[in-house]
Design goal:
The structure is a homodimer of 347-residue chains.
Chain A (H helix, E strand, L loop, with lengths): L3 H8 L3 H8 L8 H14 L5 H8 L4 E7 L12 H16 L3 E7 L2 H11 L3 E5 L3 H10 L4 E4 L5 H6 L5 E6 L1 H14 L5 E5 L4 H16 L9 E3 L7 H11 L5 E4 L2 H13 L9 E6 L2 H7 L5 E4 L2 H16 L8 E4 L2 E3 L10
Parallel strand pairs in A: 1-2, 1-3, 3-4, 4-5, 5-11, 6-7, 6-8, 8-9, 9-10
Antiparallel strand pairs in A: 10-12
Helix pairs in contact in A: 1-2, 2-3, 5-14, 6-7, 9-10, 11-12
The structure holds a DNA duplex (16 and 16 nucleotides).
Chain lengths: 347, 347
DNA sequence: TTGAAAGCGCTAACAA
DNA sequence: TTGTTAGCGCTTTCAA
């Protein structure tokens, strides 16, 4: 790989001049010189050495995607279709902006922080992070951060320097409210709620579900909380166990399309008909699942996952480049899309 | 972030000494000094600056995962569940070995090469790459490369320096042969082959399918090649169109679980019963799809995707660290797993 | 056993 | 308009 120094030597000029035309700082360079350098650059197909450039400029061009996992995840987090779609959007945006994506995945926040700092990442994308982890990151890392689907406490959020943190979220509560109300409108009264966690996003969706129930004067019972176990060893058994409980209910709102489609299958295997005996509403609208892998097609709460990823990345890059974020939070919409997994129970 | 220089100053010693104990080159350092430095290092939670270290050592600790896409892909390549699972395995292995994963995704091989060289990646993982692209990479990049599921021509492969290239593959031909033979054994005679491409892996699988047919004395007709269009705009329409042709056939072997499950649904929507009217065999055995999202559960050709990814990464890292690869090719096994999507047609 | 100093490739302040 | 040079943080050779 040819260096600037070598180019300068061959062209018999200084490295400064070469460097200047590389960076388009050509106000003070004569046209002929520009031309000469440019031609040579093209000819030798010069590619800058990122490492050297970064060291000199104390930056890295790296955007870190931080995924803190739990030890007992049912499979690698990259296999979660929601994560895949989000990362797809992020990767596209990051690449198009001339940055590079580095994944920081671990169940150990200290390890993640070490990897972030050792690379001097220019900015961070934090996925649904818990308060204490966010605080630990912030303690060591004072650069732009965009959190995604994160419900941070006011106290933690306030620790962050103003306009160094923005959160991109979803109207989770409202989305679940709409889904549940939709079911109620179709005549359902015994409606279960399925999730595999009880915090963050799931908690907010649960709230929306509860509110819809309560607004319709329907009493909630803990028996309607279908908490599934999603680790590799337990998922199938858990789905089967819940499928038995499903007979007590006419509908279930699920916190993901993936779980909805899996649970739907488990129910059918247990002799229930969908949607005649039991209706399903999913969440996220992962098209491949909700409309191509699930049968019947899944009625679900749509969100623009890829768009959210791109927005998060672009917002972060804007902050890195010194543009002030337009606010500390962006909440994206949901929209219920009706397909075939809900029965009308009104006579 | 504290630097070695600053540490040396505070401890009143040279940077060399500090650097030496950081790297465990302690043969020539007194125990007291080691102790003193170590304690200080822990206390200030020193994290090395990768950029500086890499510049000094002319390396990067970066493993590049190269995914050359085609412009008209139906969605971001990270959303392909096969890719997700593979990258999951790779990410784990790379991280555990103390390396960092960087994704080089683009439909433009020149752009990919530029990104690789600008970062001075220590090694490359090439996914199902075409001959000419592989050749172009090799022309600019002379470091360890592990290709995955790549059928490189002898000429191209020979251009690579010995023990700088190893391929990790699958017995694609045999896997498809087994799947097809299994169907034949169950009394099927009119068997279609479904894929969305005709090169590389798909080509080999097609060969296995053909060979099984021919070994059983069954004549092949081009009408049995179900070539689907998988771009976002065309996939559903294509699936529907093929579902009509499906009536002419009693079984179909598919080159992925994803397509199998989608096509299976399309067929059912078109009034066919599975497996009574039409049987399916998938490929890859993505558990979430084959056994949790697909109904009936999918009989499929199993391969250990995550294991393949880890093997590829570990092989590459071995090469980077100077260990000679044990061979230029590793072919992994397949195994047919019987589930519920194939009917027995023998009386 | 420890330290001085050059050098990795590039940028940028400053001088000419 | 162009060039000199210091310096980014770290490694490593060589000398002390």
């Amino acid at each position: 790989m040819i260096t600037i120094k070598e180019i300068a030597r061959q062209l018999d000029m200084s490295t400064t001049t070469v460097s200047n035309v590389i960076h388009g700082k050509t106000k003070e360079v004569s046209p002929e010189t520009i031309e000469r350098v440019q031609r040579f650059l093209d000819q030798v197909e010069y590619v800058p050495n990122m490492t050297a450039r970064n060291l000199a400029q104390n930056k890295s061009k790296i955007i870190g995607a931080v995924l803190k996992t739990t030890e007992d995840r049912y499979s690698h987090i990259l296999m979660d279709p929601f994560v895949s779609e989000m990362l797809g959007g992020i990767e596209t945006a990051v690449r198009e902006a001339g940055y590079f994506l580095m994944l920081y995945i671990s169940d150990d926040i200290a390890e993640i922080i070490e990897r972030i700092t050792t690379w001097n990442a220019d900015g961070l994308l934090l996925f649904w992070m818990m308060d204490d982890d966010a605080a630990r990151v912030h303690k060591k890392y004072r650069k732009p951060v965009v959190s995604i689907d994160t419900y941070m406490s006011r106290e933690t959020a306030e620790q962050f320097d103003q306009d160094l943190l923005v959160n991109i979220g979803l109207e989770d509560e409202q989305g679940a409210y709409d889904a549940t109300s939709y079911l109620i409108g179709k005549g359902h009264r015994k409606i279960a709620f399925l999730s595999d966690k009880k915090d963050g996003v799931d908690q907010m969706r649960f709230r929306g579900y509860r509110r819809a129930l309560s607004d319709a004067g329907i009493e909630y019972s803990d028996r309607y909380y279908f908490l599934m176990r999603s680790t590799r060893d337990e998922i199938d058994e858990s789905l089967d166990r819940l499928a038995e409980k499903a007979r007590k209910v006419t509908a279930v709102v699920c916190t993901s399309d993936m779980f909805a489609a899996m649970f739907l299958n488990a129910c059918i295997r247990h002799g229930l008909r969908v949607p005649e005996d039991i209706s399903f509403v999913g969440f996220d609208d992962i098209t491949n699942i909700s409309s191509r892998l699930c049968r019947p097609r899944l009625t679900t709460v749509h969100q623009d996952i890829g768009g959210k990823g791109m927005l998060a990345a672009n917002t972060l890059i804007g902050m890195i480049q010194g543009r002030n974020p337009s606010g500390s939070e962006i909440i994206m919409n949901t929209r219920l899309v009706e397909r075939e997994s809900v029965a009308d129970r009104r006579q």
